[in-house]
Amino acid sequence: MTRRVMQFLIPGALALAIASSIAGGQSVANTSAQATALGGTYTASARGFDAIGWNPAGLAMPGTGGFAFTLALNAGGYGGSGPISGKDLKPFSGDSIPYATRVDWLNRIRAAGGQTFGGGVDLTALSMNIGSVGLSYSIAGRASGNLPPDAAELLLFGNYGFANAVRPYTLQGARLDVSAIGTAAFAYGREFNVRFGSARDQHFALGVTAKYLMGHALGVVVDGGSNVASAPAVNVDVRLRQIVSDTGNSKGGLPMAGNGIGFDVGAAWQGGPLKIGVAVRDIANTFKWTPSEMFTRMSTVKYTNGQQSQVDGVWTKVSASSAAAQDSVTQALNPLVINPQLAVGLAYELPLRFTVSGEYQQRFGDGIAVAAKSRYSAGLQWKIIPFLPIRAGYAQTPDATFLTGGVGLDFGLVRLDLAGGVNTKTSGDGVGHVALTFGRH
Fold this sequence. Notes:
By secondary structure, the chain is α+β, with helices and mostly antiparallel strands. The protein contains seven helices and 21 strands. 15% of the residues lie in helices and 49% in strands. It has a 14-stranded antiparallel barrel.
């Protein structure tokens, strides 16, 4: 492959890697630094306004106070990539990658069906509960991308490919999605007089969260029919369809380029030292981006007979674009839906103020990556001093392994929680969260 083509493709791959470091959870942002410190094991333990996004049944369980809120103070983020991670790349920073290593990486990417990147950031503007009723508004930013095996082979071996096999290459399946979705949520939990077994001090509750989702920002880059050939001569034709919700010329306010409603349902039980929670988030969700509200253009880079040309099309409102462009945008946006996610968690109180917790989460379908495809996590909290809990956690997703920890300061009506963690697969991506809570919670 020519150096000029590599100069075009590599920045695209780097953009995907950067996206993985800017970006958690459900479509309602995680307001709890406790949950972050515990590796995300909170479906059984979430109470008060934290339960809005984790498990609405927690609003009716013991531990939920009469009134509590947080205002524009909660933030958290995460990132990851696979099967090749930043940890794999780190030893070769500023140096060439050995042939055997590149072969191994390509085999791993082929087996996985491509190289993926992803991450997210959650911001909470307001979250509160009044007894068993919860209200919140949050913004969830998400980034995800895919580099297909052909594109990975071009980057690793050039246009003569693996084992110098001259053949045409396509970038079909190459994609980058970056989005910001605001969610206004109303949640309610109710306790029922139901007992299971002989455990003491039992409580059982059901809950529901109703959500209105607003698409504030979207950027999509997809392959538009690229082709790279080596015989009889080097011929490169890279085409990228770009789609954005705003070209940067809006005059104040957030654009509304998509909307929909969604519902979460949950159940919670506790008896003695054991807590169990089950939640299905987005059991129904109608959110869709509106193609006619988007802007689009096609960018091309060609290299033919030793001559390079690059053309960036003009941004055009999709509703005013050609029929072919409208169809292309619609096809690109169709997969961007929010699919259901199942979460099952438990927590157990041990002597000496220790609490252990565990959780499993599974997202069904592809769509918008509001959460990792699957996650196993475990957490440990020790209240060595009642107002100074210390927390640690572990979380495993297909593309990341997080070790987390945190500490809290509980002064009764005011509580400060801090959490952080590192992705051990990359030794660079991390997670951080700070939360300040007011009221009985």
